[in-house]
Amino acid sequence: MPTKSVTRKYFSASMVALFISLAAPASARAGAEDEVRDLFGKFVVAQNAHDSKAVGEILRDSPQFLWITRDPQTGRPAPFWGRDAALKRFEQFYQGTWSLEPKVDEIKVTVLSPGVVQLLAPTVFRIAPPGQTAQPNLFLLNHIYVMTDAGWKLVSIFPILVP
Fold this sequence. Notes:
Layout: H1 4-48, H2 52-58, E1 66-70, E2 77-81, H3 83-94, E3 97-102, E4 108-113, E5 116-128, E6 135-148, E7 151-161
Helix pairs in contact: 1-2
């Protein structure tokens, strides 16, 4: 039969192991959240520079990449599937005024599951065709990021206009 000191040692070791196991997922979550927040910052810089090459490096190269944005023919929201279609649409927007100003203090990052993160960023967009004046519009910019062999990649962009 174990003595009290042996039982305490096992109990103490068990508690330390429990705290370590609880802390590891939290630090992994914090790491993912920070990494995605940093990648979003790079996305905003690339967008504001109209740098489609840098934007393309952030987007996942997949036909399942999805961006909901205004269709140039109808003016209504439409899905743009795949990185190439998205980059082509960004290039069209870049011909005029296209700038993003996220409210950095209001960004929320949520780990949905290991390797999947959602970012919600209230963002003021200034968008206008060439030669027209852009008016500021507030959007809730919703991004989904996934961890790939090449690091975090953006797989979905869903902007919601705030009336």
